[in-house]
Design goal:
Oligomer: single chain
Number of strands: 5
Largest sheet: 5 strands, antiparallel
Shape: globular
Strand order of the largest sheet: 1-2-3-5-4
Strand content: 15-25%
Radius of gyration: 15 Å
Helix content: 10-25%
Length: about 120
């Protein structure tokens, strides 16, 4: 697709993992050390537009990337998520899954995790 930054080639120093379906790259604006984007090589807009092969291989690919990040950064937890659509905060309209390593003490009270996308609803 024209003008899609995720359809272009990535610098080798950003690539964490790559296979025939997915490429994993370090996020340019990481929220934690090791923050990685898992991007399908085929252009599609959101997670909900993945094809069968992309869905089928996603879990294994996440596991491989986790093992690589575990070895390099030794996090104590992870957040995994995708922003699907502008109202969900998606700014690059090419599917990408955030794999965000977390570390003990990286925030005062992480309870509620991804619920923090709407801060007033994070705590329960």
């Amino acid at each position: 697709m024209d003008n899609c930054i995720f359809c272009e080639k990535f610098d080798k120093d950003r690539i964490v993992y790559e296979d025939e379906t997915w490429i994993a790259v370090y996020d340019l604006y990481p929220v934690s050390e090791g923050h990685t984007l898992l991007i399908p090589k085929r252009h599609c807009e959101t997670y909900f537009n993945l094809n069968y092969l992309e869905y089928e291989s996603l879990g294994v690919t996440i596991g491989i990337v986790k093992m690589i990040l575990d070895k390099k950064f030794n996090p104590t937890g992870y957040n995994i998520g995708a922003n699907c659509g502008k109202s969900a905060g998606q700014t690059v309209m090419h599917c990408h899954i955030h794999i965000i390593p977390r570390y003990d003490g990286d925030m005062e009270d992480p309870r509620g995790g991804v619920r923090g996308v709407i801060p007033e609803n994070q705590k329960y």
